[in-house]
């Protein structure tokens, strides 16, 4: 998606440790007009696949997922990183290691919201090592639901997650695939 690539070029910043800072439009301050266009693109890619639920992980994927859910006219579920008092009953759970935070989370989704009859589209802001996407896919599998695929805003194609998950048979459509990020801030797209 050229529009997203251009926004990354103009507003993104490469930080030490392979971090791409896009908080001015994607994962802190959210550009809703851009998100609407991203949702349109995910609809173009997955609109004929019978999606009944959108699944993401808190927190950065929620904004994009909500607009995608609106486009698909279906509920959005977000996997929580901590079990709170207001989640009672049975849950699906998986472990996820966060590349950005350097921490392992137990992610959870209530069994009330994810069912074997669901056709699930996972939406997230980033794909790097693939831990979040893999954990979300495990939740879908645990529910006996069908994983239609994953819609990713930005994929760091130079990290192994995307190729490993594609090798497992997961359909992944990334709107911007980054081939490399230089220490000088240069970003090359696939």
Automatic annotation (TrEMBL):
Q: In which pathway does it act?
A: Purine metabolism; XMP biosynthesis via salvage pathway; XMP from xanthine: step 1/1
Write out the residues that bind 5-phospho-alpha-D-ribose 1-diphosphate: 128-132
Catalytic reaction list: XMP + diphosphate = xanthine + 5-phospho-alpha-D-ribose 1-diphosphate
GO annotation (BP), single: purine ribonucleoside salvage
Q: Which SUPFAM superfamilies match?
A: PRTase-like (SSF53271)
Q: Any idea where this protein resides?
A: Cytoplasm
> Where is each Phosphoribosyltransferase domain found?
50-156
Q: What EC number(s) does the entry state?
A: 2.4.2.22
What GO CC terms are in its UniProt record?
A: cytoplasm
Q: Using the UniProt record, name the top-level EC class of this enzyme in a single word.
A: transferase
Q: Does the keyword Amino-acid biosynthesis apply?
A: no
Q: Which InterPro entries match?
A: PRTase-like, PRTase_dom, Pur/Pyrimidine_PRTase, Xanthine_PRibTrfase
The record's keywords, sorted A to Z, are: Cytoplasm, Glycosyltransferase, Purine salvage, Transferase
Gene Ontology MF terms: xanthine phosphoribosyltransferase activity
Under the heading Pfam families, the entry gives: Pribosyltran
The residues the record assigns to binding xanthine are 20, 27, 156
Self-association state and partner proteins as the record states: Homodimer.
Q: What does this protein do?
A: Converts the preformed base xanthine, a product of nucleic acid breakdown, to xanthosine 5'-monophosphate (XMP), so it can be reused for RNA or DNA synthesis.
The family assignment reads: Belongs to the purine/pyrimidine phosphoribosyltransferase family. Xpt subfamily.
Descriptive protein name:
Xanthine phosphoribosyltransferase
């Amino acid at each position: 998606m050229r529009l997203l690539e251009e926004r990354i070029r103009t507003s993104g910043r490469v930080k030490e440790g392979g971090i791409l800072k896009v908080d001015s439009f994607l994962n802190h301050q959210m550009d809703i007009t851009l998100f609407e266009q991203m949702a349109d693109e995910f609809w173009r890619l997955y609109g004929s696949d019978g999606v009944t639920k959108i699944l993401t992980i808190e927190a950065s994927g929620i904004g994009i997922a909500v607009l995608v859910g609106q486009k698909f006219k279906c509920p959005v579920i977000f996997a929580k990183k901590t079990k709170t008092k207001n989640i009672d009953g049975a849950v699906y759970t998986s472990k996820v290691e966060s590349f950005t935070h350097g921490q392992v989370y137990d992610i959870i989704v209530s069994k009330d919201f994810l069912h074997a009859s669901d056709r699930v589209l996972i939406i997230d802001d980033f794909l790097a090592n693939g831990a979040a996407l893999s954990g979300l896919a495990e939740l879908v599998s645990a529910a006996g639901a069908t994983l239609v695929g994953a819609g990713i805003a930005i994929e760091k194609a130079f990290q192994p997650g995307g190729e490993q998950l594609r090798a497992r048979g997961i359909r992944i459509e990334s709107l911007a695939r980054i081939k490399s990020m230089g220490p000088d801030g240069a970003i090359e797209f696939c």
